[in-house]
Design goal:
Elements (H helix, E strand, L loop, with lengths): L4 H6 L2 E13 L8 E8 L7 E2 L3 E4 L2 E3 L4 E8 L11 E7 L7 E8 L10 E6 L8 E8 L1
Antiparallel strand pairs: 1-5, 1-6, 1-10, 2-3, 2-4, 2-7, 4-5, 7-8, 9-10
């Protein structure tokens, strides 16, 4: 029986759901009182998820509700290695590009086999301050 290449490649794909909790520190004081985080896969360039709005207090911003993101991974059939999946976390105050405070990037494939909650601190690129985005990553 003929099997298309699509069916063979399905064996090398997997989908993992991550629970992401965010906390930003050293956020520059500005007129913005509330911030959001958009999750943008590098390969698509479009946001797939967006956090709730969180208030800035004394340079800190804590999001109460986590974001659940389903990420699809491809595995190399010969080596078994998982291909990288870069995600950009864009911290912003509004919908326009002028409201972007900064962005941080991370390779989600490093956390596919993690069994415990991992906390990562990433400096925000494009930020005029020393803002840091702390992300707790948990595989569900």
């Amino acid at each position: 029986m003929f099997r298309s290449a699509r069916w063979r490649s399905e064996k090398n794909r997997s989908s993992v759901v991550f629970k992401l909790q965010f906390h930003a520190t050293k956020v520059p004081p500005s007129g913005d009182v509330a911030l959001t985080i958009s999750l943008v896969p590098a390969d698509s360039g479009r946001p797939t998820s967006k956090s709730d709005v969180a208030a800035v207090s004394d340079g800190d911003c804590l999001w109460e509700n986590p974001v659940y993101e389903s990420v699809k991974f491809n595995r190399d059939p010969k080596s078994g290695k998982i291909h990288e999946r870069i995600y950009h976390f864009v911290l912003g105050a509004g919908l326009s590009k002028s409201g972007v405070i900064g962005e941080a990037s991370i390779d989600m494939s490093k956390y596919v086999e993690a069994e415990k909650v991992t906390t990562v601190s990433l400096p925000l690129k494009g930020s005029k301050s020393e803002a840091i985005l702390n992300i707790s990553i948990q595989r569900m």
